[in-house]
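User: I would dearly like some help making sense of a protein record. This is the protein in question:
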Amino acid sequence: MRDSWRGISNWKNDPLPIGRITLEELLRDPRLRVLFSAQFAKPLLGVVLERMQKDTGVIVRVGGETSADLFLADAASFAGPLHSAMRIVAELETVQGEWERTSDGYELHSSKKNSTTGPRGRASRYLLWGVNLAFVVLVAGWLAARRKTHTGSQAGE
C-alpha cells in the first residue's frame, strides 16, 4: 500500500529489488529516513560511507572497482535523512555514481576510478613544487650571502 502524500511504499509489502536502483527508489526504504548529520574536511569516499554506517546502522560501502580513497570535495556537510546524503554523494562531480541494493545494504559504484587525482591531488602537487622551489631559493641565497661574507673577510686579512 502506497503512502500517497510522500510516495513511499510499505517496506514489507513492496521491497526494493536487488541491483542498481534509482535515487528515487532510495526514498522507498524506511531505514534511510534516519537522520544523518556530519561535517568533513577534505573527505575521502570511504571515510564518509564508514561514518554513515556507524551513525545510522545501515550498511553502505563502495562496490566494484570504486576506490574508497576517492576524493569528494574540500569540505562536506550533511544534515538530513540518510537517503539525501546518499543522493548527494552519488551526484558529486568527483563520484558520479549509482547506488546498488545488496542483500544486506547498499553499494556505491562510481564512474570515477582514480583515487586522489581530484582537486586535492593537484593542490598537493602544486604545494610540493612551491615548497621545493622556496627551499632552493633559500639555499641559493644563503650560499650567495655566505660566499660574499667569506670572500669579504679574506680580502680584509
